[in-house]
Amino acid sequence: MLSNESFNYINYIFIFLIIIQVGLLISITLMKSKEKSINWFTVISASCISIVVSGLLLIFLGYAADEINLDVNNYTYMTIAIIVLSVINSLNSYKSK
């Protein structure tokens, strides 16, 4: 049977993905045009991986939460935040390119 402790571990994964996206956003905005330490392909790859992982986790959480009648609204908001940050990072990186 599932317990609430397993949901705490999934929460850490979502927070880690958000930290990665915020770190990319900070590094892209502070990066000068001559210093190309992070290229557009890296940003797109990290964004796609973050979106896919958070989407799959949200789907699996939906199935698990249905079994134990748990509310998972905060995970939905975290997934939306990851998607928004990924889009902002991709556009910001493309603009600086």
From TrEMBL:
The keyword Transmembrane helix applies. The chain crosses the membrane at residues 12-31, 38-63, 75-94. It comes from the Bacteria. Keywords: Membrane, Transmembrane, Transmembrane helix. This is Uncharacterized protein. It comes from Pradoshia eiseniae.
